[in-house]
Amino acid sequence: MNASAMPRLVSVIVPCRNERAYIGAFCASVQAQRLAPGWALELLIADGHSDDGTRKELLRLAAADPRIRMLDNPGRIVSCGLNRALEAARGEVIVRMDVHTTYADDYVAQCVEALQRSGAAVVGGPWKAEGAEPWQRAIAAAFQSRWVSGGARSRQLDYEGEADTVYLGAWRREAFERFGGFDEALVRNQDDEHNLRVTLGGGRVWQSARIRSVYRPRGSVRALFRQWLQYGYWKPFVMKKHGQPAALRQLVPGVFVGGQLLLTLAALLGAPWALPLAWLGAYGAALGALSLLVAADGHWALLPRLPVVIAAHHVGYGIGTLLGWWDVLRHGRGRERFSRLTR
Q: Is there a single domain that holds both residue 41 and residue 154?
């Protein structure tokens, strides 16, 4: 076969750890991708030393399909896994995927098409969440709401155009040669940081509504709080690196929690208690209003759960942000307890 007849290659890169229950279905969804004529794909899965049988299952899948390769990720975190997969990738286009997401069968093809059509450095689809159980449905409804997310374009399912970040992402190989790989000092927010680096470096981030997927969010308030605690914690490390946030909305939860703590401390030292109580009451009113707005979008049955879910989102992110700034200003290193990914 001559070079002109060789198919063009897409490399799908995936970090994972302890995903035995999901990895088979995920690989099947990638194997079922419908590519445009003249394209082929390889699937590179960087395993972070799983101990639940994931590695054994990956070896079985790789033996059955030469397109699948398992790589070792001794760093055990997402950014390290992505970089190990990038190092091994052979494709001219790189598409990132996540094990806990369901994809349209033309997902990869639409990523390639959007790169060609937009000329952007990175493209991706909207971040759509759906739940099965009541708490998971409430978490998904709040997550999807423009009111709770501060108007983030990545949650707008019909938005097409430039954005500050996108879900997962797809790149031409040369984008990593120009902007570098993922920051391995970051356990969370490595995608947001990379997109900010692209934007500051003169590249564009583009969202296409044609790139369709569905994300399965956490199923409990406790898990949701831990997730957003980690997101908030690592955000100051990104801000310190670049001297700015990717978007001003990222500052709001930290300002709320910090203001509440300062006013409460002032009251303990003799200031009127009316100040922290008024601050808390204002947030309570905002929380009620947000819950009603989310419920009015077809989620009235979830209304009793929504205030708890929204508060866990905001307060977890806000506390994480303050802890992150404390560690950034104190010694610039992340804490061990925030260096472990949890699902």
A: yes
My answer on whether 241 and 113 are in the same domain is no
Over the stretch 102-123, which tens digit does the pLDDT of each residue have?
999 999 999 999 999 999 999 9
84 and 207 belong to one structural domain? yes
Question: pTM for this one?
Answer: 0.84
Q: Does 228 map to a domain?
A: no
Q: Which domain holds residue 128?
A: 3-218
Q: What is the pLDDT of residues 249-276, one digit of tens each?
A: 777 788 888 888 899 999 999 899 999 8
Q: For the chain, how many structural domains are there in total?
A: 2
> How many CA atoms lie less than 13 Å away from 161 in the CB half-sphere?
5
> Is the pLDDT reported for residue 138 higher than 50?
yes
